[in-house]
Design a protein that fits this description.
With 159 residues, the chain is mainly α. The protein has helices at residues 8-19, 22-84, 87-96, 144-157. The chain is flat, with a radius of gyration of 47 Å.
Amino acid sequence: MNIPTHLPNVNRMIHAYRVAPWRVQRQWIGGALLVVLVFAMVGALYLNVTSRTAIAGREIQDLTDAIAASRQASSDLQTQLAGLTSAVSMETRAREMGFRPVEPDELEYLVVPGYVAPRAVDLSSPSETQLNVLAIPPEYNQSLLDWMDERLMSARRFQ
């Protein structure tokens, strides 16, 4: 190989590489180690994300199980409450405490001046306020196709 002699720095550099070939090997090994390091970092990042996702999924399962257990306990308590407040149970406990049903001759009614008994609420609708189909304006009884047909007919009349 022809090396120009007027470049002393280049000449020394080429001579240094010929004398020490281990430098080139060191560069190749450094590059390979860099590639291995990059793959290891990507693998570690992947494992970190995967483990966090698995932990979050497990926490969701645990919370779902806790919700189901709470609902079951709530249903059990509602069932117990319904049993305790049933008419038969209430009457039995009242008798055990010494209460008894009242006799008609033991009742005493009080008249309160100015008190007006509330009227019963009538939720049924009177017959005169029921909607009549004929009382509804025709605009609300018309379908989209009827409306389009009417518009087309009126446009033909003006032509």
